[in-house]
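hey can u run this one w/ calcium ion bound, need the structure tokens asap thx
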Amino acid sequence: MSRRITLRWAAALVAAGSIGMVAASPTQAGPAAGTDRATTAVAPASDPGSYYAAAEGKTGAALKSALHTIISSQSTVSYDQVWTALKNTDQDPANSANVIELYTGKSIAKTRNGGNTGDWNREHVWAKSHGDFGTSTGPGTDLHHLRPEDVTVNSIRGNKDFDNGGAAVSGATGNYTDADSFEPRNAVKGDVARMILYMAVRYDGGDGYADLEPNDRVGNGSLPAIGRLSVLKQWSLQDPPDTFEQRRNEVIFSTYQHNRNPFIDHPEWVESIW
Ligand SMILES: [Ca+2]
Ligand SMILES: [Ca+2]
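ok here u go:
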């Protein structure tokens, strides 16, 4: 079976909800056990076939540039279509009528999407004011950094940068916040880091969009930047990709955008680029 056919087969199974990933890659270690809500003894990330061929052997800025070209070949969805997509990408593995909220970790009915207290809405992990890209088709609708979140907790996170510390967030166990930063629960720290770094590689000032980049500060305001990079790198290491995160990458690739988050497939590329 060719690698291309293997990938198509895998994507079909993922779309059907049968599996989260397939075909071990010899270059990656499996995630550490016991660090994540949904961590199970899984094989490494799905085999993306020849998807990353143009990046092979590259490091640092050359790797980032090659990945930018690869992942910029994509389809887009509208902000309205994001609702439907999230009901698929973030489906509760234990209850197909529900999605899992990113920060609270709670399972909530897909039909509770909306804007009222107790509903879930569309959290931009790369806060949309950082680069002021809004909800037009583009970075504001990119599924790789959009997640279901409780309306109130989404508002508490607001457009804060990410960092460790602060007071416990009411209604979202394990999350902390202070005046200028937000710390997500341990099980999604790596997810947050890989979403931010995906955005930095995907959006480099072309296509009429801002050049998004991480930095090591908080309080970035409307700058096209999010911090803190040193903390995000640590979070990526301590919370490696699990089956939930890998499955959503597959679903976005196979069903919606036809591009991938390289840092879910190759977490070691975080250290190579940054
Ligand atoms: Ca995780
Ligand atoms: Ca960039």
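The chain has nine helices and eleven strands. anyway lmk if its weird
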